């Protein structure tokens, strides 16, 4: 299931993924919320907090995620993937090279910094 993270900065479309993720999660929640943010701000700042294993994404959900990325490809500004899965972190950092906008991974214990980066484009200094 995907839920909206309501206490995210206003210019960030933020989601938390738990349990099984389906195509309907993207159709009914993610895409409309992303569309609203792009219309409001003219760009997409996106945060996904992965609190589930990637094998919990159904095939339809993966296709929907790809569709979301392609549809708004010119609107991507910043996207943070928050996870402790090392493989996902590496993929996110590599994906950043081929996509417009900035993509960055953050460990789960650094969620605040991920929100800050999505909102402002820089990280909180430690």
TrEMBL record:
Alphabetized Gene3D superfamilies for the sequence: SpoIIaa-like domains
Domain of life where this protein originates: Bacteria
Pfam families: SpoIIAA-like
Official protein name in the record: STAS/SEC14 domain-containing protein
């Amino acid at each position: 299931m995907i839920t909206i993270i309501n206490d995210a900065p206003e210019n960030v479309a933020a989601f938390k993924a738990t349990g099984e993720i389906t195509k309907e999660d993207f159709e009914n929640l993610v895409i409309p919320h992303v569309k609203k943010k792009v219309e409001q701000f003219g760009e997409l700042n996106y945060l996904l907090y992965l609190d589930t294993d990637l094998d919990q994404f159904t095939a339809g959900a993966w296709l929907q995620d790809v569709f979301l990325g392609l549809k708004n490809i010119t609107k991507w500004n910043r996207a943070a993937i928050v996870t402790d899965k090392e493989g996902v972190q590496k993929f996110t950092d590599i994906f950043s090279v081929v996509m417009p906008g900035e993509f960055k991974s953050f460990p789960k214990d650094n969620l605040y910094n991920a929100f800050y980066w999505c909102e402002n484009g820089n990280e909180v200094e430690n």
